[in-house]
Amino acid sequence: MKLFGTAGIRGPIDSKVTPELALNVGKALGTYIQEGTVVVGRDVRTSSVMLENAIVSGLLSVGVDVIRLGLVPTPMLAWATNRLGNAGVMITASHNPPADNGIKVFNDRGIEFFLEEEEKLEEIIFSQSYKKAKWDEIGYVVDRDLKNDYINAILDYVNHETELKVLLDMGNGAGSLITPYLLRKMGAKVITLNAQPDGHFPGRKSEPRYENIAYLSNLVRELGMDLAIAQDGDADRIAVFDEKGNYIEEDTLIALFAKLYVEENGGGNVVTSINTSFRIDKVVEEAGGKVYRVPLGQLHDGIKKYGAVFASEPWKFIHPKFGLWIDSFVTIGLLAKIIDKEGKPLSEIIKDIPKYYLIKKNVKCPDEVKSKVMERVKEKLQEKLADEVEEVLTMSGIRLNLKDGSWVLVRPSGTEPKIRVVVEGTTEKRRKELFDMAHTLVVKTVSSLSS
Fold first, then answer.
1. What distances in angstroms separate CA 208 from CA 72, 197, 203, 314, one per listed residue?
2. Which candidate, 283, 328, 377, 412, has a CA 20 to 30 Å from the CA of 167?
3. What is the pLDDT of residue 401?
4. According to the model, what pLDDT value does residue 413 have?
């Protein structure tokens, strides 16, 4: 049995991420680090206070002290852990539905636990081999409000003032507490939507996919904004629209930052996830760098292995010089700086990024048949594309890089009962034919193995 997926522990609060589990995670983490201080934060979900109390109780029971930040975005929890803690815990299900919640665990550098560390926590939980503190060794709690300190740290790093007009859609999430204040301190003119924290997410679905935030396109134009930015529930993700109301594909944004970091460093390695575009490789290689791909949720392992100057998966950006965690707020500050430094609108800046044609779609699949579905899909995909395959990558499912520069990825979701199908084609026609083939294969395989 496994508790941790690609983004910590995540699932329904009535069956998986229960107070009992949260208590045990707290006890296990305290047992694992033995002593010291753990920084704890939570997102806006209605169940987060409940889980926070359980986590804190578990930590205290083994003699570990707690710095409790309360309601904060995940990047801030990571930053605070790096400064003040021996470990950190964030209670969040990120962009999952409101009935879900989750637990992410960080080490003292603000990095999400590596796979081997998560496995050690699971071993402690399953064996129930928890440390127990005596009555006079129980830990203590200190409540801290560090939001202004965090904002000031980002301002120091970005080191830029701007007069950009920015439309923000906070999605009723924890970013509401940071993003508007950060940009206003930079001098930006800010208009906010859905900026009241609310665990029911009444404004829109929490995930900042285009279909959930498409209305921003018209608003950007009507309000005369320079760009629009949307965040998810715990504010580690962002999505961006340019001044014309065009949605900026996440891989284009990754390519933009990757290119600039490699140019700034005179070369260097960029780490990205298995589900990203070849446009990143193209601009990085032209700038004198190299791209390495890793499984979803393992950017930190990739940074450690390849010494990356920049790392990203869709919507999530890590800026190693600031910190080794996903930080959307640094990304937002730097994006404003890039637009100003380039002296032209975002739509013009990204014209240098090559265009490919990418599509992503999910297929519902019960968790219990995911592995069987993937086994069959791996076999069938390679059969169907045998003459066209240049490279096969089997991390996070299967990705077939084809000779014409197109690619097909099929992978199981690590957080939801779904199989994800991602296809990029060198032309729209190529994308369509590859996607139709792969998507149909997955749908039929799920159907045959679920019945």
1. 19, 16, 12, 11
2. 283
3. 93
4. 85
Cβ neighbours, 10 Å, residue 192: 15
**What would the two tokens of residue 315 be?**
């919507």
Query: How far from 211 is each of 58, 206, 239, 307, CA to CA, in Å?
Result: 40, 11, 12, 36
Between CA 166 and CA 173 the distance in angstroms is: 18
Beta-ladder partners of 183: none
* 105 and 49 share one domain: yes
Give pTM, 2 decimals. Answer: 0.89
The dihedral over CA atoms of 200, 206, 212, 218, expressed in degrees to the nearest 10, equals 90
| Angle formed at CA 42 by CA 332 and CA 236, multiple of 5 degrees | 25
* pLDDT < 50 positions in the chain: none
Distance CA 350, CA 249 (A): 10
Q: Both 133 and 231 in a single domain?
A: no
Q: How many helices (H) and strands (E) does the chain have?
A: 15, 20
Cα–Cα–Cα angle for 160, 194, 248, nearest 5°? 55
| 265 and 234 within one domain | no
Q: State residue 1's pLDDT score.
A: 66
Q: How far apart are CA 178 and CA 181, in angstroms?
A: 6
How many domains does the chain divide into? Answer: 4
pLDDT of residue 363: 94
**CA nearest 413: which of 188, 207, 173?**
207
55 and 141 co-located in one domain: yes
15 is catalytic: no
In the set 61, 94, 176, 328, the catalytic residue is 94
Residue 165 phi, psi dihedral angles, 5° rounding:
-100, 120
User: What's the rounded Cα separation, in Å, for the pair 241 and 313?
Assistant: 18
Range of the domain at 292: 250-324
Q: Is residue 190 located within the same domain as residue 242?
A: yes
